[in-house]
Request: fold
Amino acid sequence: FSDVEIAPYWSSIDRTGNLPKGLFDKMVNLGLLSLTVPEEYGGVGTNPDIAWKVIYELSKRSASIGCILEGHYKTVDQLKKYASSDLKEEYLPQANERIFGFSSTEPSGGTNVQAIRTVATPEKEHWIQNGSKVMITNGSLAEVYCVIAKTSDNKFSCFLVDMKMPGFKFGPLEDFMGLRGCPVGTL
Reply:
């Protein structure tokens, strides 16, 4: 797969910042997104060592492809560990076909979680989030994000945010040499 579907296109992936037409679907069909998704949710359920070996091999042909999968796998891992049963039931099967991303970095404090300014406040049966995240791996490519937000003075929570939710929008993308095929951007 790496030699046929990725290697011939690594230069155009980096130059244009886009995956070749059909490559994402081929990745889904091969099961690359589902490697770390548990079997009970339609995934392969492999151990992390296998997933990291896959990332390593794919990264030899395109660092962008490896980076996309790394961001996806670490977000799926967070859902597996910390999500409610209802969220697992709804979203882990979707992780077999949709890219996921993790968002904590902010303009004001970088990766210092204590400096997070994004706030989440309860409203009826939902939470409303206000804030920005920057330097997010898979930013604009991922459709589902785990987002860290402040819920009180010294309390933080992780929220699952689907790009289809009201008020969600993407901001500018970074322009990283060698990783343009893996969008890193603002939410």
Summary: The radius of gyration is 17 Å. The mean pLDDT is 93.
